[in-house]
Protein 1
Amino acid sequence: MATPAFTFTPSTFQKLHPAEFFRRFTTEGVRPDGRLLDAFRPTTVHHGVISTANGSAMVRIGGTTVVCGVKAEVAEPKLDAPDQGYLVPNVELSPMCSSKFRPGPPSEQAQAVSEAINRVLKESKVLDLKDLCIEEGKAVWVLYVDAVCVAYDGNIFDAALAAIMAALKNVRIRKPTYQEGTIKVSGGSTATDENSFTLNLARTPLSATFAIFDTTLTILADPNVTEETISDGQISIALDETGQLCGVTKIGASSCSQSVMRDCVQSAKKRTQQLRDIMNQQ
Amino acid sequence: MRDADPSTNEREFLLAALKDGARIDGRKFYDFRTLRLTFGAEYGAVEVQLGNTRVLAKVSCEVIRPYTDKPTEGFLMFNTELSPMASAAFEVGRQTDEEVLVSRLIEKAMRRSRALDTEGLCIVAGEKVWSIRVDIHFLDHDGNLVDAACIAAITALLHFRRPDVTVVGEDVTIHTLEQRNPVPLSIHHIPICTTFAFFNNGERMIVDPTFLEEQVKEGDMTVTLNVHKEVCALSKAGGIPMEIDQILQCTKIAVVKVAEITAQIQAALEADAKKR
Amino acid sequence: MSRLDRTRTSAHQLRPFFSSQNLLNRADGSAQFDFGESSVMCSVIGPAEVKLRDEKLDKATLEVVVRPLVGLPGIKDKAREQAIRETLEPLVLSGLHPRTGIQIVVQTMKDDGSILATAFNATILALLDAGIPLKSILGAVTCIVDSETNQILLDPTTQELANAKSTHTFVFDNKSSITSSPENKDQEEAVEVATLYSDSTGLFSEEEYFECAQICYKAVQAVHGFIRTAVQKKLEKEQQQIHS
């Protein structure tokens, strides 16, 4: 039998037929980077990486790195909520982290991720906004939470949410005094428990994201950027420390059965517990 | 996607018909298309249909801090972003020339003419004022977006009711709709735009051009008047030069049109008020 | 057991549907769908010219633009654009129209809650009106878990949404549902629902999530039926006009 006319090196084959190349791996139960289908990449969390911010953290999930900084500023409260401060989360995906992002206004992906995280923070009632009140109707704290991706290798949602939660836990704000229309914030000496306060987080939602690969109906945990490009959809599950769900999203790809969703929830429970241990260790 | 230019047949037929004294859709030269006004269940929402051109206007209000140099003035904002729904030629994020013209004409006709009393929007001088926002959504483009948008905007402002407010010293209470009936805005006059298109070397003037007529026109002019025969705005930006007599004749025609349309708007508002 | 929305008596009752197709002249297809006082209009232009940088060699490029009723489009609308586009990608037979673009514009006309579900339904009706080839239709519905009564309420109004402990939007196509045979004679035949799109926020348990899915699945059958009837009626009217 004659040898086939064309033979490809694995990297050439990957470029020509990415989905087929991938299928060869998943049918054996592994992925090109050596992981099993349900394995998450090694994750590290570092707290307080930005000394000039009120709170900060850096999270690495595989090759995706997100740095989050929280800055507290004094502002006037919104007229319909005079005793509440507010959170302004923002996820930034710039050309710095990957060449697939163009310079200019935020891409649809960045906006969608920012909105998803905003809803988790707001609707799971992570923080009681009344804690951010300084003087009702006059002054409240605004927390600008900026999660900047410095290296993009897929799964920005998990990394950004983890970075934001770790940064919020790390926040320390100087206690202000309100006198006759001016806010005085004591500066100088290091922040101690007496002259500053930390945020009282009601819960810490963390998430696990899975990619849906339609051709072989496989679910891959924690997709990297190549897996994200060829996959057809995504499932994200967010849980808090008590095991309550804080968010479930299934978007793209053909219909997923309930048993698939149940498996994802179970896998997410284990993963978020693992993430919590990593976060609390360091 | 750019709009395709009309075919030679369409263009020639339209111009020949105008020379002979007829318009393609059978209207007389100075007739508006059938105007239909539909009010939403909420105050301040109105959909205008001018022939096949459809425009939706929605008015909303918010309490904000006024500018420091104008402590007793409220705000009136218009948003006339054209979406690809009205026409594939409108792109997201990029303003076409037509879009710029439409938004500037609305600003001139509505805001600069002081149709809405912005001083009446003050709640507490220097601290709290009403900001009225009019969002104009273009749903279907069959010519004359300006007139339709103007009618939609002013009708929506007339239809709108803002929450009632009581000020006792420093305390401001904004009543909910259940507590007290909402209050109408104070509108001084009703500006209505009338757009003319010119053909046949400036000899033929028609009112309310359709999309095809707009594509073939030689020039255009928009006159904004109210029932008291006051000119609020007049815009003739480029196009074929017209004689002064013709311009004056256009304004005379516009006076009649504006009276008709204002009567129709007021009748519609009354009929809607009876229903509530 | 009374809802904040006094027009409905049951927790599992949807608001009255209303739809209208072929409303706009410029668009290739258009439709309006109402859930009670929530109304969304959708227009579809395509298959048409597409910008070179967005052109796909083997498929049509879907573009979705979402416009809110009040204010300039923000991140919420961008997230909705992504949701609608990603959900429609597997449904549209885009391989039949390679190197073209299908542009979908979604405009909120009236807002009384459950806007995303209303938008999904309006979009599928508009795609049908435009004659875009589809693998299946879809149907969407929203439900909430009320914070006081812990009841699952279908198709919430804005007032009811403000009182929600968790909000769930589900989209189902009209093809996939797996009926699993019961293990013992006592169990009912469970219908294992397959979701095309699912978005849930708030605080909820696993059981609540899957129960919401089941309830929404049953409700969406009514939406599918309505869509079918609406298209049928439209075609009958067109036939009449041709023959009269």
Note: Residues 117 and 161 of chain A are 7 Å apart (CA to CA).
Protein 2
Amino acid sequence: MHTALVTGADRGLGFALTARLLSDGWRVIAGRYLEDWPELPALAERYGERLVIVPLDIGSDESVHIAAKLASAQTNSVDLVIHNAAVSTPLKDLDLRGGLDYGDMKRIYNINALGMLRVTEAFLGLTDAGSMKRQCVVSSEAGSVERCERRAWYGYCMSKAALNMGTMRLYEQLRPEGYTFRLFHPGWMKTYMSGVKSEEGELEADEVAEAAARYFVEPGEANGRLVMRDWSGKEWPW
Amino acid sequence: MAGKHIVVIGAEHPFADRMCRVWRDEGNAVLAARAGGAGNEAAAGTDELERVWFNPLEEASVRAMAAKAGETMGRIDLAIICLDNRKEFALREGFDSGEAMELYDYNALGPLRAIEALLPCMGEGSKRIGLLSDVRDSLTEPMGARHLGYDMSLAARRMSVQIMANALGGEGYTFRAAVLDLEREREEPREELAAGACRVLSDLADQEVLRVFRME
Ligand SMILES: NC(=O)c1ccc[n+]([C@@H]2O[C@H](COP(=O)([O-])OP(=O)(O)OC[C@H]3O[C@@H](n4cnc5c(N)ncnc54)[C@H](OP(=O)(O)O)[C@@H]3O)[C@@H](O)[C@H]2O)c1
């Protein structure tokens, strides 16, 4: 049985991916961030020991290391990691004229860009021992400099551009060791990035999770180079 | 180009210092805004460049630098960002999230703080914002993972320049990036390259909103 780690698994895409992998027969280590959100515990009742829930704040070195220890107590290896957790901000319209909130921009970067590195490093012992050595990074079109037409939302877009760069550099480092990568833009989803469930998105998390799971588990490297693909399979420019 | 008012931010770097001198020798007024702290003054030498010290991580210090620029120059024509803090660290070799955050704060947020503070003095000038960058900001060129945090901070900064161009282009602001090929990792900057960077960053005849030049 394959084992996956999913960050930000409480709700939204992370939860949908967790549910999808479980129904496909995987064991999932689900990073729980929200203390009292009911969806993961409900899944645990259904899947028993195949779902391992660990507290995980990817913005904290300590939390990530504890989560890796807890995971190590349950498994000797992780085959696939889905770096999904991220935050947005209610301050997305701030611009240079109105004054940017640099503290908020650092908060976002710490989670969206550095979180992926923390998790990758802390779980290397487990992923090195895995059979797939697959790192899947949920990024966003908001990280594409070439396509960027926004006039604000600095913190989020900068964090995703940096995430793409971090993924590229890890690809360079870890690929010779047998790792493969997936970089993914999920599209505009009806999820909880604004704190409440969005009714405006174009896609349900479940349908995106289905496409994402297929892309994440399929063997090999896409064209021998790292690309960012969206839920429909379309490639996005950097 | 002559007679322009130029603020060079991050002018403590040898390459940026060369650029200050090129522009000054052409007949421009140049303010060398040097990142650092008390005690670093000696390192600046005893030349006649007008200079100010500031800390790119502190909004108050950046605002004080901008106030000094406003006092000494009145209008600002060109704001040239040369801030650069580079450290090596990679995964498996002691990746430090605190250091990675510092690099973001300095290389990506420092320029935004500076431009935000200088904007009020730029409306009457030539409205040119220039950036000295590095080829490590490229996602298409393999660079290895030794500068993981640094490279990520440059990617974030590249995105911020694009958003600024989108936001301010309509008001007549133009943006230029001169991308150096690891030049600032050399001991001695090359004079002709500094002159070339000055040329592309200050070519005001070209009013395209954003251009990126690779400096060879
Ligand atoms: N929604 C979209 O349209 C869209 C578009 C492009 C890309 N994406 C990307 O898709 C991914 C999934 O987003 P989503 O839309 O499913 O968002 P979501 O519904 O907000 O789910 C993300 C989950 O991660 C959690 N989280 C927040 N901070 C965390 C931390 N420090 N450590 C661990 N978990 C944390 C969130 O908790 P809280 O709810 O408490 O924050 C939430 O449970 C993200 O990477 C996002 O950037 C989303």
Note: Residues 3-236 of chain A form a domain with the Rossmann fold fold (CATH 3.40.50.720).
Protein 3
Amino acid sequence: MAAKPSLKIKGKGKGTKASSSSSSSKYELVKEWTNWSLKKAKVATQYGFIPLIIVVGMNSDPKPHLFQLLSPV
Amino acid sequence: MADLFPPLATAQVDAKTKVDEKVDYSNLPCPVPYDEVHREAYMSLKAENFEGFRFDFSKGLNQKFSLSHSVMMGPTEVPSQSPDTTIKIPVAHYEFGANYFDPKLMLVGRVMTDGRLNARLKADLSDKLILKANAQLTGEPHMSHSVFNFDYMGKDYRAQLQLGNNALVGATYIQSVTPRLSLGGEVFWAGVPRKSGLGYAARYETDQMVASAQVASTGNVVMNYVQKISEKVSLATDFVYNYFSRDVVASVGYDYILRQSRIRGKVDSNGVTSALLEERLSMGLNFLLSAEIDHKKKDYKFGFGLTVG
């Protein structure tokens, strides 16, 4: 995950930073999880939205044929 | 011409019926959504002018489901440092789209060859609650945005809650005050440029005209007036003023809806003249001509296109 490596770069300051953030670590974790899930949701939507519309459309009444989907006429 | 001086008898009858038509304040119509307060004015004044060549092919597979293929070739404006010069880069792209229209669910998606997705969703969660979502997703990080709207339609009011990415929260409310007048307000808070705003809108409409105004704490004041001259012709005028940056723009536009064609155009106080002609050549075949001439910036945009299906 892209968010995690950034904490490791802060070499010497890491010790003090860990102690100060332990009280707010739950909030930080929640923020990190929501960021991660939003990123995954964005990728899923970008790849899957048009296929979703096609699947929903091909299953609606009256059911069109696959040939109608691919032919240019 | 005999109508110019109607006999006094009919004038009295007209006045009497007007007094009898008492306003029933418990039965007011539902107002237009807050975003569409200026809808009629923007039909003439904000027509979709384009530059270059455009070809849209729309194929219906059944009543609810259709696919669309769209090719656009032409110069696209790139934001430039100085406001006087416009930089244009010729670009061509193909866009594939799929639409699904159901009484309860509407899905529209458009994807371009460079991976940009434009997605719209409208779902009726219940009789009165509608969820609308709009997203533009790109491959580049931090360049995508999405907005979710929850619309509640009451008897004579509408309320909307808007959530967007980058911590954008907004709410609007519009209420019918009389059968012709509706008033509304909005409040929003944007997280990234940390600012909040407040706005008010008013709309007065009759069968022949619509007048609307909107004031926002961002400094924008918008007032417009649309008059329907006949079934085929309507004229609109618009005045936009920003009291922080002291920008003023006034424009006058027209919209002619004829049997085989529709022509819309406007003239602006910034020296911009534009027009858009949509002509129906035959069933399902439309020809588009667009022109936008900016005399001040010396920017001339002409476009033509064909729409099939």
Note: The longest strand of chain B covers residues 87-101.
